[in-house]
Write a structure and sequence with these properties.
17 helices, 75% helix, mainly alpha
């Protein structure tokens, strides 16, 4: 006897397909795999016009298909700017899935997204890169960090929050602590306040404990910057590091109390860490 899914596929009943997909579970995953392997572009075009739920399913299909990459990129790029946040996140996950499965081929596509005039697309590229980073494939660390570098001066709020306090803090330092610390040290020589803010914010997460000693050296340099955005980020990061690695950080901060140029930040961080 033919299953409901097989009937919906045979009759191309979009309403029924959406109903079955929304139920989740093995049937939902089979549906995505089937549509991804059988006319992904046509299905994605059709479903994207069926409201929010259809657009989310379209993104899932595009993430799972092995179809033509320029087509996938064009369709996902449109979905990444959808008015609904759930659709935008689905498009981001789909690009991340493609990047994880076809890294060398998809990274240039992510680079093209990085250059897009729409902040939502640039943000999606950043978050998609984190999907590849979470695999822990060490050979990807350096190219992914190099990929992020041109986005550091970007001052759009979407990009700003996704980068330093987002993927660098929560994903990259955990997945690639040595490579990420090396890049943070390089970036810390910039004169751009936005770049330095990202460096400081990246070190403020729990993964900063892994690199606390070298992280404090970087922050010591940044503490001399007089711009409020940089100083605030440095103080916040030092406070967090002091909680995650007190034996390493607190003695360093106490020595700063005798340094006229760094004493104010040291006092602020020590009060917050107490």
């Amino acid at each position: 006897m033919e299953s409901k899914l097989d009937t919906a596929l045979r009759t191309r009943d979009v309403t029924k397909l959406l109903e079955l997909w929304s139920g989740g579970g093995p049937q939902s995953r089979r549906l995505v795999r089937t549509l991804a392997a059988d006319g992904a572009q046509e299905w994605a075009d059709c479903l994207a016009a069926q409201g929010t739920q259809g657009a989310r399913l379209a993104a899932s299909i595009l993430g799972a298909t092995q179809a033509d990459l320029p087509m996938i990129s064009d369709q996902l790029r449109r979905l990444a700017t959808h008015e609904d946040g759930a659709v935008r996140e689905a498009a981001t996950r789909a690009l991340g899935q493609q990047l994880t499965e076809r890294f060398a081929d998809v990274l240039p596509i992510a680079v093209s997204w990085r250059k897009d005039p729409k902040p939502a697309v640039r943000r999606a590229a950043i978050l998609a890169s984190a999907s590849a980073a979470t695999t822990g494939n060490l050979s990807w660390g350096e190219p992914l960090l190099r990929f992020l570098t041109p986005l550091l001066p970007d001052r759009s709020p979407e990009v700003r929050q996704a980068l330093g306090p987002g993927v660098l803090r929560h994903v990259y330092l955990e997945a690639f602590p040595d490579d990420t610390l090396e890049y943070l040290a390089q970036w810390s020589t910039s004169h751009d306040a936005q770049v330095l803010w990202h460096v400081a914010m990246a070190l403020s997460g729990p993964s900063g404990e892994k690199v606390a000693g070298k992280g404090v050296i970087i922050l010591r340099r940044l503490a001399l910057d007089e711009r409020p955005s940089v100083r605030g980020a440095v103080a916040a990061s030092l406070s967090a590091l002091a909680q995650h690695a007190p034996d390493i950080v607190l003695p360093k901060l106490r020595t700063w109390l005798g340094d006229e140029d760094r004493a104010t930040i040291a006092r602020t961080a020590l009060r917050s860490a107490a």
